[in-house]
Design goal:
This protein has 211 residues and is an alpha/beta fold. Helices cover 47% and strands 13% of the residues. It has helices at residues 25-34, 40-45, 48-55, 61-72, 78-89, 97-108, 123-130, 147-150, 157-167, 181-189, 200-207; strands at 10-13, 20-22, 93-95, 113-117, 143-146, 174-178, 193-196.
Length: 211
């Protein structure tokens, strides 16, 4: 693809914290009723020893919930820990319409948009619930790169290399958007343009010359 003076020729975007956001109210209420500090379940669920096997596609949702219950077992009974894990796994979520709209405009401008996410094995179901089915012609993503399918998670360089390959451009012609510093740093180490995302205005600003 010819650059035409652009700083990048493809946009690679994270999902959670950029496009998708969760409603934690029900979980926080259950934690309060249980006597746990707010965020205790998520802290256990997303600890590397609990989270990474799921993100690499090595365990099922039920196995992940069981591991959360085990992680909480020193503070709450197994049944309550399992209920907390189940509530987290089934937490409702939404897509940020502003970000989705910007990504649609990127595709309309002729640049590929690739989702690059540390994801669960049921990512396809989640994208369908969000109205963001992965694949060509859906108006949002040209490709979906999931850690659970690839077996490696960000910030492993392989997931970035695969994403660039799927976008059809060299790594140094990619814009990479993520809300975690270590993931952005890994992308920049490969020559990508990195954007540490905090709000839609961040993405809008970097896309302004294109849009």
């Amino acid at each position: 693809m010819k650059t035409s003076g652009r700083a990048f020729d493809a946009v690679l975007s994270d999902l959670d914290g950029v496009i998708r956001f969760y409603d934690m109210e029900q979980l926080e209420q259950l934690e309060a009723e249980t006597g746990l500090p707010r965020g205790s379940t998520a802290e256990t669920a997303f600890a590397p020893e609990t989270d990474l096997p799921l993100m690499r596609g090595e365990i099922t949702k039920e196995q992940w919930i069981d591991s959360i219950a085990r992680g909480l077992s020193d503070r709450v009974p197994w049944e309550r820990g399992h209920a907390l894990g189940t509530t987290l796994a089934e937490t409702k979520f939404r897509a940020d319409d502003a970000v989705v709209g910007l990504l649609r405009r990127v595709r309309a401008a002729g640049l590929p948009v690739v989702l690059v996410t540390n994801a669960t094995p049921w990512l396809a179901d989640d994208l369908a619930l969000l109205g963001l089915t992965g694949g060509p012609g859906d108006g949002v993503f040209d490709a979906v790169i999931s850690s659970a399918d690839l077996g490696v998670t960000k910030p492993d360089r392989r997931i970035y290399e695969v994403a660039a390959e799927r976008a059809g451009v060299a790594p140094d012609r990619c814009l990479f958007v993520d809300d975690l510093e270590e993931n952005v740093a890994a992308a920049e180490a490969l020559g990508m343009t990195g954007l540490l995302y905090r709000e839609p205005a961040d993405l809008r600003a970097v896309l302004a010359p294109l849009l």
